[in-house]
Request: fold
Amino acid sequence: MIYLVIYDISDDSLRLKVSKFLKSKGLRRVQWSAFVGDLTTSQLRDVESGLTLIMKGKMKEGERRNVQIYPLTERQFQQRIVIGVLDERGEENVLM
Amino acid sequence: MIYLVIYDISDDSLRLKVSKFLKSKGLRRVQWSAFVGDLTTSQLRDVESGLTLIMKGKMKEGERRNVQIYPLTERQFQQRIVIGVLDERGEENVLM
Reply:
């Protein structure tokens, strides 16, 4: 099954950790804070528990820290509408 | 059908315009740069053409300007995994 992972993480280093983690699990970036991957149920559990671990810890005042994972079919992914420029670079490419 | 709209727009005023537009079309914010709405096909076309119009125009060097719209079933939306704090405030609540 395909999963779309979108995240809103205001802390720069945490956000970079999340994007590197998702890449390490074979997901592919489709937007600055969005990744897609074809995962088995156990791979999904692995991603979910890994993210939960990374995101643990006390939040600072006003900090935003949220990840959402949506199941999609291949057909729904193909049906997606893209408006504007697809920029598959990410922070790890830009910041490095 | 439910649609998840995710956007990566680096220009502050353009990003605010997009979020206000999506709200005006009845979509609900689920993350800082993500909205969800139950739309008919013609409502979807209306959202797509409105976003295309808003996003038109020359981009500055290094600017990011991308919107993606994913179809989802109600069940898939219910199955979504949320990790971390759900913060349904948005820029228009914070900046105002």
